[in-house]
Amino acid sequence: MKQNLSKIYTIVVVLVLLILGGWSAWDIYRLRTSNSEAARVNVDQIKSNVESSYNAAKSFSDESFFRSIRQLFKDNPDLEILTVYSHDSDVGIEYHYNRGEDVELLNLDETTPLTMKDLPDYKYNQLMKSKLTSSLNTPGMSGMELDLIYKVVDGATIYNILIRLLIVVVVLFFTTLFMIFTVSRHNADEDIEDDDSDMSDHMDSSFDSEDSHDDLSLGWDENEDSSGGEFAMDDSEFDNLDLNSSGGDFDDLNLDDMNDDFDSASESSSDDFSFDESSDDFGNELNDELSLDEPFEDFNLEESSDDFESVSSGESELSEDTDDYSFDDVTDDFGDSEADELNLDEPVDDFNLEDASEDFNLDDNENEMSFDDLDDVNLDSDIPEEEDLMAMDHEISPSSDFDDDFDFDNIEDTFTDNVDSDSSENGPSLFSPKSGVGWEDFIEDRVNFELERAASEDQDLVLGLIQCDSLTEDNYKIFADQLKEDFNYPDLIFEYKDKGFALIVPNNDLDQSLKTLEAFTGREIEEYGEINVGISSRNGRLITGGRIFMEAENALHKAVDDPEKNIVGFRSDPDKFREFLSKK
Question: Where are the transmembrane segments (predicted)?
């Protein structure tokens, strides 16, 4: 019954878990399907918005197009990525906007940053997101495609389903514990009842066995002779004797007759413990069975140890003196023979190996060494004297004979721990000791890194080159410190040539940077004289650091050549830039 209950409970638990898991999977599938259908309905609307925005702005890099895309993402909270690209030209991706970091754009060429090798490939969670593609109708540009990635399953929905599963599993867990505890306790109670019943059955069987042996009787034969009364048991009666019976089996035994027999046997001598040869029939039968006919007479250790021969038959007698139980004869024989060999009369302190070696001679075994062979060993001659030990291997010399190994010449210690960490011997650090800003060699690498980060986050970036010919070695670092105070990115300021600086301003467009640098040069021009600045920005383009650096240098050269303008900004045209790239 208990096994059947356990099997039924196990089957029920498995079925509950399977049904709950299937229900949860069906719920997720249904939700994903419905949200995917809703996203497909919105694709046409988003497509028309993108086409109208492009026709109004005439460029994918125009600010009005950016604003319309941002508004589109605000109206569609489930939209994660929007990518516009062309597979009929070498331009590649025209526009890419990513709301978060859950989706990653793959298969980009490392030599040309953010330029597509083939059709764009994305890395995203396909359970929670869905990709939709549609063609764009843009005048003057053929083969334009639109990729949209929608979030079709919310993380909160997955969380609620998992919580529901967890609650059911916890309930089943505690139910299983309760079942195990209940069954174990029930089994323990049944075991106790079984033990009690077994014990009662055993006691009943014991009482039945006692009753079966109540009629046991023993027959005794009495034979009288000169030595006194004796008792004997017939063979048939001995065979019927149950030695395993309890004490209650001997209730019918006539012990008074037995006591009379023992009393009559002991009347002949009060202190004599000897038995006659013809004492009783029972003794004779036992002697025949146990071969006790031959008694031990005058037992001698020497004779028994030599040949183990049996002694002649005779009568075994004990001493008639009941008050004296000493073994004088045995002690005398053993003591005389063995004491002579061990020489126990002498004290232990005077024990001599030379005397003992004569007694422990093992001449019978030629392969073993006797104590006589130790006479040839001269123990005194084999142990060296103390003087010989001192002269064997070494000679003790006074301490004055040793040289002082720790004597050094008196040399002046010129070592110092005050080492300049920015010295040229230790190699260049991240910042130049001349100005406290970055080295000029690191400009292009850092610009490349910041451009890639700005493109992935759809942000603008500005590179400014500042040149002041009136700077000297004394005020060069002061000018650099003033730059670090006015701009919040001290690690994005670098040396530029002998008397200039390069400045990277992330998340800032060309117009904002022009105003900021005009305010800075206006404050510092009174102290340092003429200050020229050249600026260039990313402006939605996918360009390299070398490209934007070349544009900023050209702007700086124009600022130096034009005395009326000390700040010149390079404003790029993304459409012309793409045409330039397509012709390469």
Answer: 6-26, 161-181
